[in-house]
């Protein structure tokens, strides 16, 4: 079985930092491949991943949810056939539609029945939630509505009232979303992974 998780979020929201945190938990015992796709010159710290024993395959020609849909399928096929990973972490570009990325993952399952989609998460900067919603409209809302879990970043920099306002905005857009508002330093990486994959109870910072 190959488990696939998609970690999305707008540029600068903190998805790379979240992936790094997840890799310090039980994922260290798995054979993990990171499939990243960043628009333009901004990419993940490949050196860090390689030092941690993570294989990095970069797709830097465009967005996997549109122009690279075919390449994405080929990349998943190649990764599975070449590395036989336990898990593939997909980190899409910050301007991609998560719904279309998840659709591409589902299509990959038709050729690899042993693929299991292990949940998806969108990282949202708690202090920029309203701005994202206003300026990026459907792209931001698609990432929020398509994710099984929304994980706020930088809540430790805000007061409880500001965090709650952002939480309410997300809850209105996606009432069924699991929303994590607790600062990341206060959570173990495996707890976050369990919420993403298994829908464990919400873990809110006290108000």
Structure, explained:
A seven-stranded parallel beta sheet has the order 3-2-4-1-5-6-7, sandwiched between helices. The protein has one domain (2-198): Rossmann fold (3-Layer(aba) Sandwich). Helix 3 packs across helix 4 (98-111) and helix 5 (129-146) crosses helix 6. It is of the alpha/beta class and 207 residues long. The chain has helices at residues 15-22, 46-51, 69-83, 98-111, 129-146, 160-173, 189-198, and strands at 2-9, 32-36, 55-58, 87-91, 115-125, 149-153, 178-180.
Features:
207 residues, 7 helices, alpha/beta, 7 strands, Rossmann fold
CATH topology: Rossmann fold
What class do helices, strands and sheet pairing give? alpha/beta
Amino-to-carboxy terminus distance = 41 Å
Poorly predicted runs are 39-44, 61-69, 203-207
Looking across the biggest beta sheet, what order are the strands in? Answer: 3-2-4-1-5-6-7
Shape: globular
Mean pLDDT: 82
Strand content: 15-25%
Give the topology, please.
Layout: E1 2-9, H1 15-22, E2 32-36, H2 46-51, E3 55-58, H3 69-83, E4 87-91, H4 98-111, E5 115-125, H5 129-146, E6 149-153, H6 160-173, E7 178-180, H7 189-198
Parallel strand pairs: 1-4, 1-5, 2-3, 2-4, 5-6, 6-7
Structure described in brief:
The chain has 207 residues and is α/β, with parallel strands linked by helices. It has a single domain, classed as P-loop containing nucleotide triphosphate hydrolases (Rossmann fold), CATH 3.40.50.
């Amino acid at each position: 079985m190959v488990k696939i998780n998609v970690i999305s979020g707008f540029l600068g929201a903190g998805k790379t930092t979240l992936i790094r945190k997840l890799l310090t938990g039980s994922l260290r015992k798995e054979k993990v491949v990171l499939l990243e796709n960043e628009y333009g010159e901004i990419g993940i710290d490949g050196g860090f991943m390689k030092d941690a024993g993570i294989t990095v395959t970069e797709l830097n020609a465009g967005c996997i949810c549109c122009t690279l849909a075919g390449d994405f399928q080929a990349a998943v096929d190649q990764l599975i056939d070449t590395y036989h990973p336990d898990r593939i972490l997909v980190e899409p570009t910050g301007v991609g539609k998560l719904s279309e990325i998840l659709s591409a993952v589902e299509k990959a399952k038709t050729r690899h029945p042993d693929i299991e989609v292990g949940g998806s998460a969108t990282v949202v900067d708690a202090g920029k939630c309203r701005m994202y919603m206003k300026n990026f409209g459907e792209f931001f809302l698609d990432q929020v509505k398509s994710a099984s879990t929304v994980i706020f970043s930088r809540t430790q920099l805000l007061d409880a009232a500001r965090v709650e306002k952002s939480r309410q905005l997300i809850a209105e857009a996606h009432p069924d979303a699991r929303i994590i508002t607790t600062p990341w330093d206060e959570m173990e990486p495996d707890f976050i992974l369990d919420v993403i994959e298994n829908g464990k109870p919400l873990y809110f910072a006290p108000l």
